[in-house]
Amino acid sequence: MHNRLFAKICMVLIFFGISVIQAAADGEIVFLDGNVTVTRNGKEYDASSLYIGFEVGNYDFIQTGSNGRAELLLRTPQGQEVSVTVSNDSSFYIELSKLKSGKDVTSLEIVTGSLAVKVDTLASNAEVQARTRTTVMGVRGTKFKVDTTPNEDLLVTCEEGKVSCTDEDGKVLYSEPGQVVEKIPDESFKTANVNVNELEEYKKRWKKQRLEVFKANALRATRFFAKIFLESYQNIVDTYTELLQKKEIFDKWIQEDKQGKIGSKIEIMREKKQVIGLLFRLKRNLFRFERAFFRLMELEHYYKQGHGRGEIKPGLTAGQFFEEFGAKKKDIIAMIAKLKYLFKLFAKRNDGHFPVDMIDSSF
């Protein structure tokens, strides 16, 4: 009865040119422990504000502290369930998109740390991905885990099904029970045979070993991510400043979002045309910048413990870099959060996704 009444109300609103935004969540938190935050629509919700059943969705950023852990239950646009366990010291965001093939893609954008994922069998027009800066994991009806280190080493282990792992050169390897995939930046992208019964012990040894290697070469990692940060920062800020000149459009979208509606088709077409170029440029550049930024936050923690001392480049020490980096952190976090909200508002006016089909590429 209520569903029929809601449908009739929607028909009346559409007749008068008002679009209704569906309120259904893309998922929710099903377990919480320790320090966990969710950033949504430019606002951060800390552990005191979160609860079992807290809704999560497109462009939400989930982050755990050293004692934090969370489990999420997500749903694809077709209704299949994706279970995500977020380890401590980890962060990722959810992104829904659509490719030229017509497939809806639910992407888990891993920024730092480790995620364990279980995916139900998917519909033919649905896809679930887990992505790091260097590798895309394509999954279908499987249970697997992605572990990363501050140096961006990657280990993909699979308990059920099969996971395709594609690196930035287009090379494809498969993780499945009895076989893991390992990527060491600038060194190797390979598989290794591991007995299923020994998988947990193998993962512990791998993480311990790679962390020891990282600590011995922490300055190298800092130089690498600092280079990406320094090369990208000003371009990101300049484009973001240019985008804010369209403030009247975004203020209107934010107000509409609070009211649970969007404008007419003519309004949407006019507004999208004015901002799509800048948003697209920012989204493409943000992929590398954001990952470098959060890796540097990890590296700053290790620097304070005595790892990674020395020169970043001639005339700039790691200490000087992190001092400048620390002064910018708060503003950068706020900028990234605002951009994710703007991407989300655009997606709501574009069939629920950002138009990545213009690239149709994993990277």
Strands of the widest sheet, in order across it, are 5-2-7-8-11-14-15-18-19
Low-confidence stretches: 1-25, 357-363
What amount of the residues lies in strands?
25-35%
Name the overall outline. globular
CATH topology of the largest domain: Jelly Rolls
Mean pLDDT: 88
Would you count the extended β strands for me?
22
Going by helix content, strand content and strand pairing, the class is alpha+beta
Q: Which percent bin holds the helix content?
A: 25-40%
Note the main sheet.
9 strands, antiparallel
N-to-C order of helices and strands:
HEEEEEEEEEEEEEEEEEEEHHHEHEEH
Whole-angstrom Rg = 21 Å
Alpha carbon gap, first and last residue: 46 Å
Count of discrete domains: 2
Structure, described:
This protein is an alpha+beta fold. The protein folds into two domains: 24-215, Jelly Rolls; 218-358, no CATH class. Helix content is 39%, strand content 31%. The strands form four sheets. A nine-stranded antiparallel beta sheet has the order 5-2-7-8-11-14-15-18-19, with helices on one face. It has a nine-stranded mixed beta sheet with strand order 4-3-6-9-10-12-13-16-17. A two-stranded antiparallel sheet has the order 1-20. Strand 12 (126-131) and strand 13 form a beta hairpin. Helix 3 (218-243) runs antiparallel to helix 5 (265-304) and helix 3 crosses helix 6. The relative contact order is 0.11. The model is unreliable at 1-25 and 357-363 (pLDDT under 50).
Summarize the model shown.
With 363 residues, this protein is α+β, with helices and mostly antiparallel strands. It has 6 helices and 22 strands.
